[in-house]
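Me: Here is a favour to ask of a fellow structure person. Could you put it straight underneath, so I can go through it closely?

Assistant:
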Amino acid sequence: MPNGTEELNETERLRKLNAIYLRIINRYGSYIANDESVSVAELPRLVTPKDPAVAKKAKDIMSNFSPYEYSRDFYSAAVMAYDYVRKEIYPIVLPVEFWLEPNETMEFGAGEKLDRYTLLCSLIIALGNPSAKILIVEKSERLEPTLYFEFNGSFYSMNFESDIAKLESREELLKNLGITDDTVAYEFNDKMYIDIV
């Protein structure tokens, strides 16, 4: 069993190693960004509900219901998926544009804003709701994502900053997000991508 000094030395070693990694990333960030760049039309490939790790997590969530019945249990399961991503996946900001796939986000237990939403969208679809989409509004060169889905005739939005809301229509969602004719906004899931305005 390591003593306090060994643990301190290991912590210091990891701190120094992380500092070196950060220096390398910052120095070669433009090369990484060129390799990692994804056009917005390619975003659907980041939503992976059939990935084995995503499917396993969805199955774990469904196991809380015996048996899982979509029409009865989906909303509660979706809230569990939301809570999992919000509480268990640590939000980070990387110094370069680097897209994580949902299984990687789960593996690291961390991800940037969009990584967390692509994981949530993947889980919601894996729980049986193919209507789940990530809606992104571009504001001051920042991406502001929200996830929404239809269920039992209502619309639900999930946002890690503003929680879960039940809405009457997609139009109400767009209005609440402040989308106008001048707004750059688009939505996608694993099957589609469309520009909203």
